[in-house]
Amino acid sequence: MLYILEHLEPRLYKWCYLEYQHISQIVGKNKLMFTNIKTESQRKKLLPFGKVEKRSVTELNLQRACILDPFAQETLKPEDKLLFDYFIFGGILGDYPMKARTKVELSNKLQAATRNIGKEQFPTDNAFYVVKQIIENNKQLSDLKFKDELELPIKEGESVHLPFRYVLIKGKPLVYPKLMHYLKTKKGF
To answer: What 3-state DSSP class applies to 42?
Structure first.
């Protein structure tokens, strides 16, 4: 089984890099492939975290592939591990409200099955975590707990609103500490 992240942003932003690093920790470097990584410098940066492919996943002619798309009609379930060898995610900066970019960029271009993990928008690392729980740990989506929207305090009187769905682990939302630090110290909010 391979988890594939199709990078769909114009560059490898710092937040992408940190989220991709976290995804590698979640699913394991040997089970992760980044696709659509156009520049040599981006490929070198991501190589410590998984396999790296210059081509788009749409050019790889994968069989038994599943695209994770919030607009898919069917919800992912543990039995789907018998149907699919590849789970494809869009590496997309989330718009709020959603603009169906996964559908436009992947689902409409690939001859592959689609599944959702709910209709809400997850940060990419959280989406990987949820899929791993369902596919590798035989959890139903209903077995997992979530929190919609986070308010991340930056400093006295300032915070960042994150309008996404987060998995709760032991009652706390799954947020990569390095990403949290980056958001807290980033200039220009």
So the answer is: helix
